[in-house]
Each structure stands twice: as C-alpha cells, then as structure tokens.
Amino acid sequence: MDSARVGVIITDPDQEDNPIIYVNEGFVQLTGYSPDEILGKNCRFLQGTQTDHGTVANIRHAISQQKAVSTEILNYRKDGSLFWNELHIDPIYVEEENKYYFIGVQKDITKQKHAEERANAYNKEINLMSAPIVPIIDNVFALPIIGNVDRDRLKIIFNHATEMIHSSDVETLILDLSGLNNLDDESMKGLFNLNDLVKLLGAELILTGVNPDIAVKSKSLDISLSNLQTYSTIKQAVKAKQKKSHS
C-alpha cells in the first residue's frame, strides 16, 4: 500500500469519529496534506461546499452498515483546488483482533470527468444540430429535417420539440421535410405522430416539403396526410399563417 499510485487510508470505526490510522504516500500526493495533518482525523476534511450531500450520506450509511461502497465524489485538496475522487471503501475484518477496519482507496479521475463533460456538451450540440428549431415570425417556429432519420434521431426530435414548446411561445411548429433523404417505416410513423404530441402541448403542426415519395410511403403505411396542414414550402406556410391571422 505504501508504494501504490492511488491514495490509500485505513480508518478505525471503534475509535471516536472513525479516525484515519494509516495513510500512504499516494494519498499525500493526491490531497497535499502531510501525514501529521491527516492521522487521527476523520476524512471529512476533504469535503467542501460543492461536495454532494447525498453522496456523503450514502457513504456514511454504508459505513454504519459495515458494507462496501464505491462512488464518485467531488473533494478538495489542501490548497482548495477541486478534484473528482473515485472512491472505494471496504470493511476488512481482522480475526486476531475481532474487529473491523475500513480501507479507503482514492483515485483522481478529474481529467476523465472533464473529458466526459466536454463530450456531453459536444453531444448536446450535435443533438441540437440534428433537430434545429428556429424562429420564423412571432410564435411560429420551423424544424427542418435534413438527412436521414432513425429511431435515435426521432427521439431527439421529439424531446427537442417538447422542450421548445414548453420553454418558448411556440404556437405553430412547421416541420419541413424538403431536406429529408430517408427514413424507415417506424421513423415515418413516429414523425407523423409528432402532430399528436404538438396538439397535446397546445400548439399546431404544419408539414412542408412533402415530396411524392413521402406521400406514397405514407399511404402504404395508412398514414393520412389529409388530417395534416401541408404546404410545399416554409414560405407558403408562413404566408398562409399570416393571412389567417389577419383575416
């Protein structure tokens, strides 16, 4: 344990406040605290204002039940800097002493977590690009579908449309299919079911760019376009919307 690259501590739950009775060099390097500053203390000194209280409660519960626990927790070094700690705590029974100790293993995963956050932000941007909802005129927004649509992208479209209608003053959503390359039967049905979702959210859906291939495919799937408002282009749909609002 002395030569381990990860941080290792041992605590004694039979002593008051479950203090640290052993610390390795890896823990010293990870946290910036010297052994003299660590030994005899509960390891809560690693916690701070941004440490999740729920995670701390789960750790305390596991220790009270003498159960192993693995988690990720935001901790603080001696200099106040934050680091993500991949923490594993295991109860170890020493038969000769007839008692339990706890061994805690800490690994700095800050770089990994930051990479995950960047990846999540990137994926979010990709998702928004795959279902861009843009304002046209007051309370009228357009969702152009470009490229192929599969089940995953259909889910993104539904989620984004729901969020936009909830968070913005969307009264009319124009779904433009003029840039659509291909979609399977399931996605085709799902895309047209968007009309029911939009209605439930108190808005209306208008379809534009419905080409002959889409019309033929919808007929083969028993999807009736007659129940939907359709126009050749977004421009025509907007003009019709403006004319209706002025009449």
TrEMBL record:
InterPro entries xref list: PAC, PAS, PAS-assoc_C, PAS-like_dom_sf, STAS_dom, STAS_dom_sf
Domain PAC: 67-121
Record keyword 4Fe-4S present: no
Gene3D superfamilies registered for this protein in UniProt: PAS domain, STAS domain
Keywords: Chromophore, Flavoprotein, FMN
CDD domains for the chain: PAS, STAS_RsbR_RsbS_like
SMART domains reported for this sequence: PAC (SM00086)
Residues of the PAS domain: 1-42
Residue ranges occupied by any STAS domain in the UniProt entry: 130-241
NCBIfam families: sensory_box
Name the UniProt record assigns to this protein: PAS domain-containing protein
Species in which this protein is naturally found: Salibacterium salarium
